[in-house]
Amino acid sequence: MQNTLIKPTIRPSNPHFSSGPCAKRPGWNVGVLSNADLGRSHRSKVPKSKLIRVIDESREILGIPEDYRIAIVPASDTGAVEMALWSLLGPLGVDVLAWESFGSGWVSDIVRELNLQDVRVFEAPYGQLVDLELVDFDRDCVFTWNGTTSGVRIANGDWISDKRKGLTICDATSAVFAMDIPWKKLDVVTWSWQKVLGGEAQHGMLVISPRTAERLVSYEPLWPMPKIFRLTKNGKINEEIFNGSTINTPSMLCVEDQLDALSWARSIGGLPALISRCDKNLNILSEWVSKSDWVEFLAEEKNCRSSTSVCLKIIDPWFRNLSEEKRAKAASSIASLLESEKVAYDINAYRSAPPGLRIWAGATVESENLKALVPWLDWAYLEVKSDFQD
């Protein structure tokens, strides 16, 4: 980085680098929603067919096995994960892995809300991954695939036993459509529409394996089950939920938007193209970081760095010598300055993460916009540093 305060002249054409909701797909405009079935029952033939299309097209693009069930559920990824935890946990001990805020949230829910007694918690600080070899697959295992607030992801599924007795429950909300997910290694997978494909809010996706289906009908939780979480009916899987009949009322406007996003994904080459776009974006940021004297990846291991939620820490000795309060203020000032310049929106680090920046680099983000962004990051940092030193 050059020691200069000259303001760049080229701005990203799209300043949306938020880690959720994420940037809409290239070329998106509100006109793509013109055929939304507004004012109609989601249970009538045409609207329900669109819900089924979301399920079928998601399966096709992601390569989800035919014997895995897929449902559209309420309350985004959070709702999908909670549905799995409340419905499935209890008959076996549980290993819970956490290396960022959302994983820590699942720890809290399992220990404090479900009050399970046989729980082993494996936690790592921001920037690190837990030791996956410690997991006992005779037990259930709950984990995130990609740490959205830490920028640390699991590299692959080789650590998961094919002979497991327990279920693997994976929150994959910022990984699906961006990373190679080994479906046969996973028994529950969840995500939300507002992540990699830039969909709209409040709808979650829940995928369950045949082993999970067996657990649902053979085990009845000890706690009362809210209606919004119930996946069984009269001791059997409620198959309607996995065939487009949602538990609560979905937004047909959001459904139309998701179908548009899935259509775009197919048009560019499906999952391989989506993964390639994410990897290319990560490489652009990696090249910039390698030349920087003030910033580094929060994720310490290269092969565990997220290609979607790229989290950065500030390593300049000046910054590290500030108090914790001033570090948070300085990092926030960088993000605020870039927002005021209409260069980058919502790139401050997550509130519980170390002070720094978090840049979404998922498939809907154009590489040219990231190339245009990085000079502005250098400029904004020097501007804020100068202000704090005056």
Condensed summary:
The protein is built from 9 helices and 14 strands.
Tag the structure with descriptive keywords.
390 residues, alpha/beta, Aspartate Aminotransferase, domain 2, Aspartate Aminotransferase, domain 1, 7-stranded mixed beta sheet, 3-stranded antiparallel beta sheet
Could you explain how this protein is built, in words?
The protein has 390 residues and is of the alpha/beta class. The chain has two domains: 235 residues, Aspartate Aminotransferase, domain 2 (3-Layer(aba) Sandwich), CATH 3.40.640; 120 residues, Aspartate Aminotransferase, domain 1. A seven-stranded mixed β-sheet has the order 1-9-8-7-4-2-3, with helices on both faces. Strands 12-13-14 form a three-stranded antiparallel β-sheet. Strands 5-6 form a two-stranded antiparallel sheet. α1 runs parallel beside α5, α6 runs parallel beside α9 and α8 crosses α9. The longest helix is centred in the last third of the chain and has 23 residues. The radius of gyration is 22 Å and the shape is globular. The model has no long low-confidence stretch (mean pLDDT 96).
Tally of separate helices: 9
Uncertain runs with pLDDT below 50, 5 residues or more? none
Q: Name the average pLDDT.
A: 96
| Portion of residues within helices | 25-40%
Write down the overall geometry: globular
Tally the structural domains: 2
The CATH architecture of the largest domain can be given as: 3-Layer(aba) Sandwich
CATH class of the largest domain, named Alpha Beta
Say what the CATH topology of the largest domain is. Aspartate Aminotransferase, domain 2
Number of β-strand runs: 14
By CATH's scheme, which homologous superfamily of the largest domain applies? Type I PLP-dependent aspartate aminotransferase-like (Major domain)
Give me the strand/helix succession. Answer: HEHEHEEEEEEEHEEHHEEHHEH
